[in-house]
Amino acid sequence: MLPPGLPPFRMAPRGLLLGLLMASCFTVCLSHQSLGFALTNPEKSSTKEAEKKEAIAEEELESEVLEVFDPTHEWQALHPGQAVPAGSHVRLNLQTGAREVKLQSDDQFRNNLKGLKKGRRLNINTNTYTSQDLKSALAKFKEGADMESFKEDKERQAKVKQLFRPIEELKKDFAELNVVIETDMQIMVRLINKFNSSSSSLEEKIAALFDLEYYVHQMDNAQDLLSFGGLQVVINGLNSTEPLVKEYAAFVLGAAFSSNPKVQVEAIEGGALQKLLVILATEQPLAAKKKVLFALCSLLRHFPYAQQQFLKLGGLQVLRSLVQDKGTDVLAVRVVTLLYDLVTEKMFAEEEAELTRDMSPQKLQQYRQVHLLPSLQEQGWCEITARLLALPEHDAREKVLQTLGALLATCRDRYRQDLQLSQTLSSLQAEYQALAALELQEGEEDGYFRELLGSITSLLKELR
Ligand SMILES: *[C@@H]1O[C@H](CO)[C@@H](O)[C@H](O)[C@H]1NC(C)=O
Ligand SMILES: *[C@@H]1O[C@H](CO)[C@@H](O)[C@H](O)[C@H]1NC(C)=O
Questions:
Q1: How many whole angstroms separate alpha carbon 343 and alpha carbon 341?
Q2: CA 166: distance to chain centroid?
Q3: Residue 278 in contact with ligand 2 by CB distance below 6 A
Q4: Pick from 53, 204, 264, 412: most CB atoms within 10 A?
Q5: Full DSSP string of 146-176
Q6: Is residue 316 within 8 Å of residue 375, measured between CB atoms?
Q7: DSSP class of 182
Q8: Alpha-carbon distance 278 to 302, whole Å?
Q9: For residue 196, how far is its CA from the centre of ligand 1 (angstroms)?
């Protein structure tokens, strides 16, 4: 998916960083020169220059004569530049930020000493901390405050903001600890700055968005993106004159909106819906439109207020012209799937409200104000959907059949009068009878074609 000419930034640094973070731990390590390097400069580590530096750091480490610390059974502060015999226990004192060392067990220690005498490299057995531990620990000694209650989301965002502001100071703290790690938040800030900077090249901007997309899949990260204005920067990216920037901004937004109500709300307030619709309504490369349509789906799903706005802004007309464009069958199928999702979502919401009475009255009220089916009927979607049944691919037809079914209550009269539709359905029925028979011969009782045949037959029955 990476456009040609872009360096493959993503895999190497991500693999490296992930390897370290996914184990959800970071290591307080004396060889901070090499480890710190890997953690702070994930992007550069794929470049030759970085490899060279790393190699140099390794060499320096090999030749460096370390002063060896003599641990006891008590925790003692470790000073920069001191080495610890293998097997010692090392911890980061989260109150003071000092690294502390004590003896782990005599036997182990002696064994390790033997190792030392044989001239082996130090093998430092260290405690591990999650990056989350570190984040809150640092926040603690920045603020001297209790950061336990991250629970209230508002509060959390405010704290994240505080975390964000003194980021240069945080980095200094990290440096003083000889511990260098980039939190997801720092990475996102860096990527947003890269993208937002007028001195970044187009390729750098796209690469930044591409990397950012990975982070915002996590709900917390997507919400953190809000806290420092990063989401708005990406939304504004939809205004770019570069189709690639539009495309990758939409790629990030689609991931950030997905099942994330807070982000969805902010995006609506930030004008994302209008911008997405403008892109869909104007001449743009297919790839950009695909990602924008995906972002639109994520923004609308489970968010009746956005659905209302979508209808008000003429979203259905925009989708209609998209479907009627030549050569965009892929988009047409996605549009129909989106409509199917919206129709069924509203239906289920209303059913669920009746059955369980769990849903908040406001939410139900909002769903009730989404006048989707009447708008679909007025704007000719009964016919548009029926025409799409002529698409050649089975899965496209499957989606269209689903949608025809969902629109049945609204469109029944139109369908009945639609001769072309009944002809298409009849010829599809014949086609899938044959295919289902073959399927059955191959021993598949509940095959795919049989299922399609079932949908067609029941539609024909309904329309009789
Ligand atoms: C993005 O850049 C603009 C203009 O250079 C600046 O005003 C804005 O604060 C930047 N936003 C972020 C989140 O860095
Ligand atoms: C983005 O473009 C829309 C029109 O498409 C315009 O109304 C809006 O002011 C622009 N926003 C920014 C931040 O440039």
A1: 6
A2: 26
A3: yes
A4: 264
A5: ------SHHHHHHHHHHHHTTHHHHHHHHHH
A6: yes
A7: -
A8: 22
A9: 6
The reply to whether ligand 2 has any atom less than 6 angstroms from the CB of 281 is no
Ligand 1 centre distance from Cα of residue 233 (Å): 7
Distant-in-sequence contacts of 53-59, Cβ < 8 A, 24+ apart = 57/33, 58/34
What is the model's pLDDT at position 325?
A: 82
Instruction: Quickly tell me which residue has 């090999």 as its tokens.
Output: 62
Identify the three-state secondary structure at position 206. helix
Distance of alpha carbon 240 from alpha carbon 206, whole angstroms: 12
β partners of residue 26: 129
Contact 279, 288 (CB under 8 A): yes
∠ at Cα 316 (393, 398), nearest 5°?
20
- Please give the model's pTM, rounded to 2 decimal places: 0.63
C-alpha to C-alpha distance for 401 and 340, rounded to whole angstroms: 10
**250 contacts 288 by C-beta, under 8 angstroms:** yes
The pair of structure tokens assigned to 18 is 């992930």
**Is the distance from CB of 205 to CB of 245 less than 8 angstroms?**
yes
- Rounded to a whole number, what is the largest CA-CA distance in the chain? 93
Q: Which helix (H) or strand (E) holds 76?
A: strand 76-77
Q: DSSP secondary-structure letter at 241?
A: S
What's the CA gap between 286 and 291, in Å, rounded?
Answer: 9
The answer to whether the Cα torsion of 419, 424, 427, 429 is positive or negative is negative
* CA dist., res. 300 & res. 338, Å (int): 9
Q: What are phi and psi of 360, to 5 degrees?
A: -65, 140
Q: At what angle are helices 329-356 and 361-368 packed, to 10 degrees?
A: 140
CB atoms within 10 A of CB 418: 18
198 CA → ligand 1 middle, Å: 10
The Cα 281–Cα 315 span in angstroms is 9
Give average pLDDT by consecutive 10-residue segment, the chain, 464 residues. 41 37 30 30 39 42 48 71 58 60 53 36 35 49 41 59 58 61 88 96 95 94 94 97 96 95 95 97 94 97 95 96 85 94 91 79 86 93 93 93 94 93 95 94 90 94 90
Are residues 137 and 101 in contact, defined by beta-carbon separation less than 8 angstroms? no
CA of 237 to the centre of ligand 2 (A): 10
- In the numeric block, the tokens 């959907």 are attached to 385
Q: Residue 81 to residues 26, 65, 120, 175: CA-CA distances in angstroms? A: 19, 9, 18, 13
Residue type at position 271: G
Amino acid at 411: C
